[in-house]
């Protein structure tokens, strides 16, 4: 599931990515102490206001640790906007799936201030 989700983001496949989530799924990206976004409408809005702003997103997966119903992905992520701003950062992404195999909870740990600084410097 983790590879499918990352692949959908890399390919800009909004509907494919959203359809990987359970109707009551929670998304925390980045994890920052807030309760996160719950439900596919909120997750679709996250795509439209965050992921869609990038011309390119690439995951260089370093390792995936899997267990029944969940996985943690360690990856280097590269992003680029249509205006040429770019950033590279490391992330730990925790995927949890329900009994149907849909993503029930996604928690992405990465440093938002560092990424914003990189984007504003290019």
Automatic annotation (TrEMBL):
In terms of SUPFAM superfamilies, this protein maps to: NTF2-like (SSF54427)
Query: Pfam families in the record, alphabetically?
Result: SnoaL_2
**What InterPro entries would the database entry show?**
NTF2-like_dom_sf (IPR032710), SnoaL-like (IPR037401)
Q: Per the database record, which ranges form the SnoaL-like domain? A: 3-104
Protein name listed in UniProt: Ketosteroid isomerase-like protein
Organism, scientific name:
Aeromicrobium panaciterrae
Which lineage do the record's taxonomy fields give for this organism? Bacteria, Bacillati, Actinomycetota, Actinomycetes, Propionibacteriales
């Amino acid at each position: 599931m983790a590879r499918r989700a990352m692949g959908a983001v890399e390919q800009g496949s909004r509907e494919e990515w959203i359809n990987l989530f359970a109707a009551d799924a929670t998304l925390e990206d980045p994890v920052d102490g807030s309760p996160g976004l719950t439900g596919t409408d909120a997750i679709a809005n996250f795509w439209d206001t965050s992921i869609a702003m990038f011309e390119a997103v690439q995951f260089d997966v370093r390792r995936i640790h899997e267990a029944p119903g969940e996985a943690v992905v360690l990856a280097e992520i590269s992003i680029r906007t249509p205006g040429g701003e770019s950033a590279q950062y490391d992330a730990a992404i925790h995927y949890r799936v329900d009994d149907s195999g849909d993503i029930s909870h996604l928690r992405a740990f990465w440093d938002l201030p560092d990424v914003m600084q990189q984007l504003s410097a290019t």
